[in-house]
Design a protein that fits this description.
The chain is of the alpha/beta class. The protein has one domain: Cobalamin-binding domain (Rossmann fold, 3-Layer(aba) Sandwich). The chain has 5 helices and 7 strands, in the order E-E-H-E-H-E-H-E-H-E-H-E. Strand 4, helix 3 and strand 5 form a beta-alpha-beta unit. The longest helix is centred in the middle third of the chain and has 13 residues. The protein is globular. The chain starts with a strand and ends with a strand. About 25% of the residues are buried.
């Protein structure tokens, strides 16, 4: 049995038209051996849920930089919570989540209560995210000899 690379879905919220953050995170993941499904900007919630259901995904990465993450992520998390448990990966969130630029401990707690496994914001967000990724190991899949 050979390990397959871990698979991440990268997405944003439906109102966020930015793509540079998604491409950057794709490169970060690929440099660490991940296979990436990048859903692009202005991602409909249904597309995220459908992708998780159809693909064997190890991590859902939600990145938003338009400042509306705290407003829109709850509906995304609601859709993810309806994905069959076997297809529901850990969810991480990062970027500029509100227009203030800072996020409070209570806001992080609320996001965790809604189903976010970790939140990455601030100047060291990418470094902390990279450390988070080091905790993943490649899943094993059977291969034909």
């Amino acid at each position: 049995m050979n390990p397959r690379p871990p698979v991440a879905v990268i997405t944003t919220i439906s109102s966020d038209a930015h793509t540079w953050n998604l491409v950057y995170l794709q490169l970060v993941l690929e440099e660490r051996g991940w296979q990436v499904i990048n859903l692009g900007s202005c991602t409909p919630v249904a597309l995220v849920a459908d992708t998780l259901t159809a693909a064997d995904v190890d991590l859902l990465v939600v990145s938003t930089v338009n400042g509306h993450g705290l407003l829109e992520v709850p509906s995304l998390l609601d859709a993810v919570s309806r994905v069959p448990v076997r297809a529901r990966p850990p969810v991480v969130l990062g970027g500029k989540l509100n227009t203030r630029g800072e996020i409070t401990v209570d806001e992080v707690r609320r996001l965790r209560d809604l189903g976010v496994d970790d939140v990455f914001v601030g100047e060291r967000a990418v470094d902390v995210f990279s450390s988070y990724l080091s905790g993943f190991t490649a899943p094993l899949t059977a291969t034909a000899a």
